[in-house]
Amino acid sequence: MFRGILIDKQDGKQSAKLTEIAESDLPEGAVTVRVEFSTVNYKDGLAITGKSPVVRKFPMVPGIDFAGVVESSDSSDFRVGDRVLLNGWGVGEGHWGGFAQKARVKAEWLQKVPKEFTNQQAMAIGTAGYTASLCVDALLSHGLTPDRGEVLVTGASGGVGSFAIALLAKQGFQVVAATGKANEADYLKALGASQVIDRNELSQPGKPLQKERWGGVVDSVGSHTLANACAQTRYRGFVAACGLAQGMDFPASVAPFILRGVSLLGIDSVMAPREPREKAWARLARDLDSAAIDRVSTVISLEQALRAAEDIVAGKIRGRVVIDVNR
Ligand code: NDP
Predict the structure, then answer these.
(1) What pTM, to 2 d.p., does this model score?
(2) Domain 127-266 = CATH 3.40.50.2300
(3) Which stretches are annotated as coiled coil (predicted)?
């Protein structure tokens, strides 16, 4: 038996609890991992609270990412004792995830933890940091350079936002952080933001074309915020869109795209192929220092994860919440 959180649905009502799970109930997979750390992502919050239909099969162990040690392996790619991590692939949605002391998954979903990171640090970064890195890779590979102007990061105090700020600042960009938490200005500046603005400046309906300001944008918020960010992006600028914290809608016009040549770059971390994943993790290993990782993260127990899931959906979390599944 091992401990884990199980989400179940009975008579149409969804509930989540910390419980004992039999090893024989683990799903099929070539590699069994002794999970050490997982994290509370926005999607995990949606899964546990049932606010969105993230979970596609019941009962489900949530947790879209984890890091741990290989306990047994039928794959030639992984040996017992290897330090591994997993991001996405529908884990925690359609296949049991990381909010438990054990997980069994397909070998191709796993990757080795970069040697620069402990397993705890790998999860402090987690899917949020990896997604931020995918966003930065997208902006840079399209040719964004610091001389093209300031870069806006929305949802700035969240997981994706925090790491996007640190990675962009490291590349020499002037980063403007849009946040609803005015009291986190010092935190955002310590990560590398050169200016902090109130997210309300972006969250209301706006004109299709506005004063040009941003060379690039990393947006984890969607809705009017994304529409306004596009409307304020400079000629031939780039907007990387990865999230929906404000809303799934995109109430925008085509004006920024057809009149200013703005490019909207969609970012998906879940099914991203191996090559961009490894590139994103290589950037994290190269560009993040331990101090930034520690600044961004707090550690909680499995039991506390239930409460943290509610908090992240309510927008009350700063940075990243790591779950020590053995605590
Ligand atoms: P967090 O909850 O950590 O961060 C989201 C941040 O958005 C909050 O901290 C808050 O920042 C801001 N925010 C929250 N509610 C609102 C609102 N109503 N209006 C405007 N801003 C709001 O989540 P993550 O960073 O983990 O994820 C961010 C988003 O990205 C989520 O929607 C998530 O689902 C998505 N995502 C997508 C991935 C992909 O593959 N495409 C992968 C990972 C995440 P502040 O208080 O500073 O304003």
Answers:
(1) 0.96
(2) no
(3) none
- Tell me the residue type at 131: T
CA of residue 209 to ligand 1 center, whole Å: 25
Q: Which atom of ligand 1 is nearest to the CA of 199?
A: 48
- Bridge partners (DSSP) of residue 87 are 65
Number of H helices, E strands in the chain: 10, 15
Indicate which residue's Cα is closest to atom 23 of ligand 1. 42
Is the distance from the beta carbon of residue 112 to the nearest atom of ligand 1 less than 6 Å? no
Question: 48-98 pLDDT, tens per residue?
Answer: 999 988 999 999 999 999 999 999 999 999 999 999 999 999 999 999 999
Burial of 24 (C-beta count, 10 Å sphere; 0-12/13-18/19+): exposed
Mean pLDDT of 317-324: 93
Among 181, 220, 264, name the best residue to mutate to test ligand 1's pocket (greatest count of ligand atoms within 8 A of Cβ). Answer: 220
pLDDT tens per residue, range 258-310: 999 999 999 999 999 999 999 999 999 999 988 889 888 999 999 999 999 99
Domain ranges for the chain, please list them: 2-113+296-324, 127-266
Q: Is the CB of 159 under 6 A from ligand 1?
A: yes
Q: Is the CB of 157 under 6 A from ligand 1?
A: yes
Cα of 53 from ligand 1 centre, angstroms: 17
CB count in 10 Å sphere of residue 321? 27
What CATH number belongs to 2-113+296-324?
3.90.180.10
| Confidence (pLDDT) at 294 | 86
Confidence of residue 141 (pLDDT cuts 50, 70, 90): very high
Exposed e or buried b per residue across 226-260, where buried means at least 16 C-beta atoms within 10 angstroms of its C-beta: bbbbbbbbbeebbbbbbbbbbeeeeebeeebeeeb
